[in-house]
Amino acid sequence: MIDYHKILALSFDGISQRTISASTGHSRNTISDIIQRAKKLGITLLNDTMTNIWLEEYLYPEKQPIEKGYYPVDWEKVHKELQKKHVTLKLLHHEYALAAKEAEKIPYAYRTFAEKYGHYARKFKLTMPLRRKPGEIMEVDWAGATLSIRDRATGEEIPAYVFVAALPYSQMMYVEAFLDMKSTNWLTAHIHAFDYFGGVTETLVPDNLKTGVIKAKREESILNEAYRELADHYRTVIVPSRVQKPKDKPSAEGSVGHASRQIIAALRNTQCFHINELNQYISEKLEEINTTDFQKRPGTRRSVFEEEEKSALQQIPQIRFKMTEWKTAKVQLNYHIQVERMYYSVPYEYARESVDIRLTTDLLEVYFKEVRIASHKRLKGEIGQYSTNIDHMPDHHRSYVEHNPENVTKWAATIGSFTEKYVAYILENHVEKKALQILSTLQNMAKKYTPEELEQAIATLLEISSNPSNTVLKSLLERRKQASKTKSVPVSKASNENHGFTRGAAYFGREKK
């Protein structure tokens, strides 16, 4: 029997193949083949469990005998199929049994099938344990250590925070630096990670930081609304890790440590003046990590990702995610909210209530108990600007705002041409504030008379007065109204009879004697 253990032990000690051949009595071709297979399968060290029998089965699986009479199983195919979504060992055994029946062979029972697969997975896939299915999870976190960029003007060092995303199955990583850890950059980092991987995993596992999780609960955590919107857009599910349970996201923790050693530590003395320049250096280091051979398994992070995991990712939606940010504010007594030192109105009924605010690049939406109550175009430029919707005002405020020269002129046109002339005269001969007060009185007077009565009175006013005023107009209107009432009272017909005193003197006690 070939002494695989001795051959590999001598090879790892740097002994030449010629000397190993002379020592073990095996041909140099055999020794070369054993050493090459071990290297390809990632065996770099030997331990007590790696006996000659184990090494023979591991290095030459194709030479292992098949039990007589049973239908052979392609365990490599079973292993790859089992990595696919929703595929179970029970399903694969059912398919194997059907294939055995067609070939008129005896299939293994399910229990034997499962035991043999377990034996195969332990021996031949020892360096690649199947903890996660491909495309199942992306673990994300901020690294504890930071990098920095230098301000050209002041020479000040500005901290840069490092985001790390990892796919547990292939160990593929994505790393990017940002100037802060706020919600916008947290969401941007996820979008860039999805673009880098070329797809989306079924589940996101973040830490319980405030940019992602508002409140961590055992039953169901309360997610940041903007983070939940991102998950909905990319059709993935957020499952936060438990508080102080780093084993819930071991790949992210391991990747953070790896990124800290291989990227953050390596770039600690690199001087950059812009975040994009720093990210360019990070990208180069990241590519080096993802393409470096594993120490204890064949291939690289990228090769495993490309061959086994990329196809399992969900497609990225064609419509780009619209970045959102959520805030809360209290409605002031003037029925406005303050957002980034700008002011936006909401219906006055919500004064003193707390509301949720959804911000996009160009739009601001206000929600009260998950119902949208207002929306505005975002104000930009000089601080302290107001965006006020007239419909949000109480009636008396709305009347005040709507009382302006343009609206009064339009109102006058609905009455008649003489009213238009009178309004124009008032506006031309008084400052605007005073003119609006006079015209407000005119509109109040108009409520007591018909348009025809008002128009006729103003016509008379303009004809008789060179300096028309509301006082004279009011007098004219009242006189016309009084004259109209007088004409409407019926006048009794005069009698030709002269009645005089009809009761006579006797009635008053003065009879003639």
UniProtKB/TrEMBL annotation:
Region feature (Disordered): 481-513
Short name of any one Pfam family annotated for the protein: Mu-transpos_C_2
Domain of life according to the entry: Bacteria
Integrase catalytic domain segment(s): 130-325
InterPro entries named in the record: Integrase_cat-core, IstA-like_C
Biased composition regions of type Polar residues, renumbered to the chain: 485-499
Example GO biological process: DNA integration
PANTHER family named among the record's database cross-references: TRANSPOSASE RV3428C-RELATED
NCBIfam families, alphabetized: transpos_IS21
Name the UniProt record assigns to this protein: Integrase
Organism expressing this protein natively: Caryophanon tenue
